[in-house]
Amino acid sequence: MPWSKLPPNSTRLDRRLFAHIAAALIPLAALAFLLSYSDLERRSQEEHRRFLDYARLIGQSSAKAIARAEGYASALTSQDPQVLGDCRRVFSAMREDLIEATELAIFRGEVPVCSLGLGEDGQVVQRPLGTPGDAVSGPSAKTITISRTNEASGTRIDIGLRPQTLLIAPITATAATNIGFALVDKNSAVLASHVYEENDIGNFLQIVGETRADGADFSQSDRGWFVGSSVLPGTEYRVVTASRSSEHRLELWLTVMRALLPPLILLAVVFVVLRYGIQRFLLRYLSHIYSTFRQYGTGNTRARVGQLAGAAPEIDLLGVTFDMMADRIERRTHDTEAALAEQRRLSRELHHRIKNTLQMIISLVSMQRRDATGPREKAALRVTLERILAISAAYRVSYASTEGTNVALTALVHEVVEALRGPATLPQGRVRIQTNAGANAAEIDLDRAIPLAFILAELLPPRFDCLLPGEVLTIELAGADRIAMVISGASQINDTLDGNETGTPASLRSRLVHAYLHQLDATCGMEDATARLEIPLHPVPGPQASASMH
Q1: What is the rounded distance in angstroms from the CA atom of residue 425 to the CA atom of residue 432?
Q2: pTM
Q3: I want to staple 191 with a disulfide (CB 3.0 to 4.6 A). Which of 64, 163, 287, 533 is the partner?
């Protein structure tokens, strides 16, 4: 990360830290809300199932009571008629075994023998002879009549069960709930009911009266009541349970608040702790270290953290470690710069000595050439001088402005041509060098620059010697990765290249040119009256390049 893109001060860094902590707490709050909401949905579904369970519980309890009453009535029909004559004793015995029973009527054929029941005060009273419960009015006094007849003796026993007593067991088991219970017949008439809130009695009875016998087991009314219904097995009666849903809506909001309140409180506490606690004991030291890092990264290599008074040992150790690292980097940088400066000094001294040595050799050869008397001796010394001048020119251009790795091709050709004009006593205007944009930007490494200078030293002097009065030699450089050098007047160059085709042994000049061309993987051919020399600027991998290295 670039230093310019880092936060400019510690205040912005603190704000980003607070934002990261808040961003970490928000998902926690969302997760808590989702868990609470899912728990609410789960408990709501459980309550729906509980509605039906309550209805089934009442149905099972009522079915058991009815089954016991039927069994007891069947047992009485088989008793001796004289035993059944004492109605009060039979009724008392029945009450001990069947507490849900409140009415008893005994018939002999179609003639009623007796009819007893419980009064309002709980005392046994004589009923008018007829159907049990007919003498008592009101929905709460209606009874469920269980009748059994013995065909052999003609005895019929009618036992009346008060509906309210069928709800006693489930009401006791669910005393802590807000669910209302009702027992209704096939016409949706309420036989018995129980509601914990007296204010809900009217609405509850209205909701129960609106339920259909063929309706769904569980539903929600338009008034916001949850209603469950279950049929008593083997009867035409149904048990209805209902509860208001307003408390569920309130519970939803309470659940949301309970889910969001702890993360919000935690977020506030974290902000306070960060602002007044961590800022004092941690962040101010980290901000100082961070500021030092920024200064060091922007170029101030003398920036140091220094002593952190009052900081924790771990933070102080961080500052000391950075200072030690910066000191070590500074020492290594100083040593490296000193070694590099010494290397440059030695390299410059070596280059200077090489150039002086070459210049001394050139001077000695030039003096020997001037003192020579024979033409063959002068020609041999001239060739030697030209080759040394080519080496010196390439070396001089190579180390003029660089570290001796790459050479500008145009400058190399200019320097070699200028060096070769001296021994040929050729005026400056007689040689013209033309280049294009690609050739001007081309560079060649030193290992290939010296062989190229040797090639020019072998090809150009014979061409210089054959220039006619007023004739100008043109050298054109073109290309980028592969330079094409076109030299006008190709006859002398052709003689140099093809001197071995006359049957005589090849000259040293010809052998040197072919060796250097092979070393550079270059080609030299004739095109009309010009010679075309093509040279790759970089070595070509392959067998030829490998052979040229050897």
Answers
A1: 16
A2: 0.45
A3: 163
